[in-house]
Design a protein that fits this description.
4-stranded parallel beta sheet; globular; 10 helices; 230 residues; alpha/beta
């Protein structure tokens, strides 16, 4: 350990607040709880965070996205705003899509845009369309935190949709607690623990004083008991 470069040691210290045993024990409890009381739907596992030494009014509100190794919620829906080529590709892959004309028909109506933003969890857009979104739809999608992600013609659409499904967002609002989906109860212990580990690391890197801003961390399934990690 003495011979390790400082950056590695710093990274280890940043991470060592949630011991591996604690992480795996909590993951085990969450998964066991869902097997004891099976539900008729796939329960999501959420990382719940309580912050401290933060003033949401004064301190800069953080926001960041990270792609997890395993898709937390496989059933979330993604819609493509596409040019002709992307619409054809979406059709071939059974991915929901909308053309420029479909978007024009919404006529910037707030109600229609709100309905669209509730219908899908995320959006992708072709390069020729992405610049037109504010003009076509107004600020609705942006306000909902669902502004489309760019998709180019060199990217595989099905893979890109999976990338979007695997991406989670940490966003500081006006309160000191936040929750974000990091997995589901059909995952293996290793998959879920890997996702939780990545999510915690990333969250701590976003915070001004890193671990000094974390009051508590829990994971829980939709209907299960919370398990404390920190």
């Amino acid at each position: 350990r003495e011979h390790l470069p400082l950056t590695v040691l710093a990274h280890e210290d940043k991470m060592s607040k949630v011991p591996r045993d604690t992480l795996y024990e909590s993951v085990k409890q969450v998964l066991a709880g869902s097997k004891d009381k099976p539900r008729k739907f796939l329960e999501t596992v959420e990382l719940q965070v309580s912050l401290k030494n933060y003033d949401p009014q004064k301190d800069k509100r953080f926001s960041g996205t990270i792609k997890l190794k395993h898709i937390p919620r496989p059933r979330i829906s993604v819609c493509v705003f596409g040019d002709q080529q992307h619409c054809d590709e979406a059709k071939a892959n059974n991915i929901p899509f909308m053309t420029v004309d479909d978007l024009k028909k919404l006529n910037k109506a707030k109600k229609a845009v709100r309905k669209l933003s509730k219908k899908y969890n995320a959006f992708l857009a072709s390069e020729s369309l992405i610049k037109q979104i504010p003009r076509l739809l107004g600020p609705g999608l942006n306000k909902a935190g669902k502004f489309p992600t760019l998709i180019t013609h060199s990217e595989n659409m099905a893979a890109k949709v999976n990338d979007v499904k695997a991406t989670i967002k940490f966003q500081m609002k006006k309160v000191l607690c936040l929750g974000v989906a990091v997995g589901n109860v059909s995952m293996s212990e290793d998959e879920l623990a890997g996702n939780v580990h990545l999510a915690i690391n990333f969250l701590v890197s976003l915070l001004k004083k890193n671990w000094q801003n974390v009051r508590a961390l829990y994971i829980k399934s939709t209907m299960g008991k919370p398990q404390r990690l920190y």
